[in-house]
Amino acid sequence: MSSLTRARESFGRRLRELREPTGLSGKDFAEHLGWDPAKVSRFETGKRLPSESDIRAWSEASGQPAAAEELLAQLSVIDEMYATWRRQFRAGFAGRQRSSLQVEAHTRQFRIFEPAMVPGLLQTPEYARHVYRVLVELYGLAGDVDEVVALRMERQRVLYEPGHQFHFVIMESALRQSFVPRDVMRAQLDRLVSVSTLKDVALGVIPLDAQLPAAPWHGFWLFDDRLVQVETISAELSVSEPEEVKMYATTFRAFADAAVHGDAARSRLIDVQRSLAD
User: Which of 2, 79, 150, 223 has the smallest CB count inside 10 Å?
Assistant: First the structure.
């Protein structure tokens, strides 16, 4: 069970604790509020989160109107745990890049697994430009692509600063089945070969014919042992629960063991580059 799920269920239990002293069943409580009974059930099981007006109505009906502020504060925390990309990017993508600068500056050990694309810290400007053009079109948001690409390149300075260690694991399929033009991908592969020689960077490539330890459902970034960031199509999930972070660390290690590193990884990169040239 994820920390987000636990937080939602805990919130639901708190709502139930407010209702129960009234002596009303969930069905009677819903009737008192003029709601469908299923609405109360979904709130109390954490399957659905209430709006601010729902919370205030619930608190009033429970005879504890002051509880609304406590509930709204909890709801805000849950909302931050699962932040939609559209809300984050409403003012453009640059703000997201600036927040990443802060997180990365205070991280000593980076462990990054990407099954479908080149990680942002390793992207060339042209590759990054294509990534953000796709996002602008997908989300229909502000197209500050040049500024965002510049900030992404600024983020890459951390690769050369002392006190940081990086382990990247990329699936070979992400390099062969790319959404960018071939010439952009060839230049990107040059960049990967070059970065793989840096002292504090380990780059692993999982071959197409490798036996995978698990299904590569999504990429994820581990920042030390304190935080994991997972990006989906519609949202970003931040995970900080120690047991969950440990689970991601174990998963990363398994994918890293399936990858080739060093000269073997560079050989894979060069093979892909040659195939693109052909």
Answer: 79
